[in-house]
Amino acid sequence: MKQLLLAGVAAVSVASAASAADMQARPYKAPPPAAMVSPAYNWSGFYIGAMGGYGWGNNAGSGGFGGGTIGYNWQFPGSQFVFGVEVDAAGASIKDSFTEDQGGILVTQDSKINSFGSVTGRAGFAMDAVLLYAKGGFAWGNNKSTISAPALGIVSSDSQTHTGYTLGGGVEYMFSPSWSAKGEYMYTSLGSENYNLLGDSLPSGNIDFHTIKVGVNYHFR
């Protein structure tokens, strides 16, 4: 019996040693390289949106506006850089008014930006669902100027469309696969135009104003 036990122990030891030798002999396989991680969001494609906000300027007054946006983005696969073009237009009520005493007669001059818009290029850096961007380009605005002297029963007004440039930037957040929200600041400078008021051609001077806007865009996928 003792001899049988010793023989069994010896057999188990030999089998264990052989198994260990087999395990050591197996070739090592390196894990596969990690796959390149692509951004989870891609901003490419057409989009349309609605926006609104507040504008102000030293020679433009202040007030609100609201309108729409249409644009297109390009983002190459694997890249975080986004480029695009954007067109927007808004109805506005950005008003300014002042009154002067001219020889005992009160004369009031009112100006109002009725509408404005732009055609701009955009360049941004995407961090998945967040896009930081700068933009700039052509701008236009329609302005109405009025001179009145109520004591004399005189009112004279004229409207002109001004052109110039706009610069600014903002941040946009993709809160669903097809919808994004944005906040944006822009500075706009429009060149002078001549207004026909009280029989004279009067230069307006540049119209410079700032805008803060928020908006929502729908992206076509």
Largest sheet features: 8 strands, antiparallel, barrel
Q: Could you name the CATH class?
A: Mainly Beta
Number of beta-strand segments = 10
Beta-strand content: over 45%
Number of domains as seen in the coordinates: 1
Using the coordinates shown, work out and report the CATH topology: Porin
The low-pLDDT segments are 1-23, 33-38
Along the chain, the helix and strand elements come as HEEEEEEEEEE
Give the CA-CA distance, first to last residue. Answer: 81 Å
Short account of what is shown:
Helix content is 11%, strand content 66%. The chain has 221 residues and is mainly β.
Structure description:
The chain is mostly beta strands and 221 residues long. It has one domain: Beta Barrel (Porin), CATH 2.40.160. Helix content is 11%, strand content 66%. The protein has an eight-stranded antiparallel barrel with strand order 1-2-3-4-5-6-7-10. The protein has a two-stranded antiparallel sheet with strand order 8-9. The chain is elongated and about 70 Å long.
List the helices and strands and how they pair.
Elements: H1 2-25, E1 45-57, E2 61-74, E3 81-102, E4 105-127, E5 130-149, E6 154-174, E7 179-190, E8 194-197, E9 200-203, E10 207-219
Antiparallel strand pairs: 1-2, 1-10, 2-3, 3-4, 4-5, 5-6, 6-7, 7-10, 8-9
